[in-house]
Write a structure and sequence with these properties.
Elements: H1 3-27, E1 40-44, E2 46-50, E3 55-64, E4 68-78, E5 83-90, E6 104-108, E7 123-130, E8 156-165, E9 175-180, E10 189-193, E11 203-212, E12 220-221, H2 237-241, E13 248-255, E14 257-261, H3 274-285, H4 307-318
Parallel strand pairs: 1-13, 2-14, 11-13
Antiparallel strand pairs: 1-3, 3-8, 4-7, 4-9, 4-10, 5-8, 6-7, 9-14, 10-11, 11-12
Helix pairs in contact: 3-4
Bound molecules: calcium ion (3 copies).
Length: 329
């Protein structure tokens, strides 16, 4: 990261901490959580059909939460040997003009000091957002009914991460997790308020549950409140205990995502190239070997494997044609 960008980022981190800690510590008003409060949930998208050598965009989505958010600080880990060169795209909250007009979103791709002792994933990025920066000229949109900052609706894409996918993806282990990660208490929290009346009742939503799928259907709760930094198991209890102002709450569930692959790699060698075209031609017209996983040959997702899939792969490899879209095995 360049020096000027690092400065912006450090300022952002500082602002975020000020927003969530200092102001709350000095001016904390105890606003009781009422029965209608639903914790936030933040989900990293999962995608099938990752393609070696391609790029992929994964959305980070708010899927639950009833309270007003003012910013967030997310730390996301991945395997850098499979995914590299992460960049971010703004989601709906940051579009100006738009419905929300949040003002700041920055990415830090490290290195992170806290990782010096080891234990961090090979790829790690931090994303910091602040809805309203101290620019004096602009503020995020408010709800005309209440005059308060708008609650982001569920299924809002907060931002997207674009990755370059490695040219080779191990066909025997066709899944790479992309997951929330904690190196410090300040990682993975949302600055929020139950009822905004000035700057002084902003609180921190810490992780309640961390849910993982490991690429399989259903969720596994991997939360451990006794975990030690660095960890992928959520904010340990020490983060809550250290907060003398009592403004930190376990009010956010984090859902990990990931990528799986195999589509188009019909010869199962971890790459997509002319050998896959030849494999399909042999399969279709010359009694060649069968597919390990039938769905990986149905590139156009029309339930049969035929000449159209061969043409589709030719177009994809040689003519910048559309990305293969196999059905889920
Ligand atoms: Ca502003
Ligand atoms: Ca192949
Ligand atoms: Ca087909």
């Amino acid at each position: 990261m360049s020096n000027s960008f690092k400065t912006i980022w450090l300022n952002s981190k500082f602002l975020f901490i000020v927003l969530t800690i200092l102001i709350g510590f000095v001016h904390h008003l105890s606003v009781a959580q009422d029965a209608g409060v639903i914790p936030y949930s933040i989900k990293i998208e999962s995608k099938i059909n990752a393609l070696p050598g391609d790029t992929i965009t994964l959305n980070i989505i708010k899927t639950g939460g009833t309270e007003m958010a003012y910013g967030f600080d997310f730390m996301i880990g991945f395997d850098q040997s499979k995914l590299s060169n992460p960049t971010i795209s703004y989601g709906e909250p940051f579009i100006i003009p738009g419905d929300f007009e949040w003002e700041l979103l920055v990415l830090d791709d490290g290195p992170f000091l806290e990782c010096g002792q080891g234990g961090c994933p090979s790829g790690l990025i931090e994303l910091i957002s602040i809805a309203d920066t101290d620019n004096g000229i602009h503020h995020p949109k408010t709800d005309p009914g209440t005059g308060k900052i708008k609650v982001l609706p569920n299924n809002t894409v907060l931002f997207s991460i674009n990755f370059q996918i490695a040219d080779y993806l191990d066909p025997t282990n066709p899944y790479v997790p992309i997951f929330f990660f904690w190196t410090l208490c300040s990682d993975n929290q949302i600055a929020f308020a139950y009822d905004y009346d000035g700057l002084f009742d902003i609180r921190s939503a810490f992780s309640r549950f961390v849910m993982d799928s490991d690429g399989l259907p259903g969720w596994i709760n991997i939360t451990d409140y006794n975990s030690q930094f660095p960890t992928n198991l959520g904010a340990p209890d020490e983060c809550i205990l250290l907060d003398m102002s009592g403004m930190s709450e376990r009010l956010c569930d984090y859902f990990n995502g990931g990528l799986s692959w195999g589509c188009s790699d019909v010869n199962s060698d971890g790459r997509i190239n002319i050998l896959d075209i030849i494999f399909l031609i042999n399969l279709k017209y010359k009694d060649g070997p069968l597919l390990n996983i039938q769905e990986y040959g149905d590139l156009n997702n029309d339930t049969s494997i035929d000449i159209l899939d061969i043409v589709y792969l030719l177009n994809y490899i040689y003519k910048n044609g559309p990305q293969p879209d196999c059905p889920q095995p």
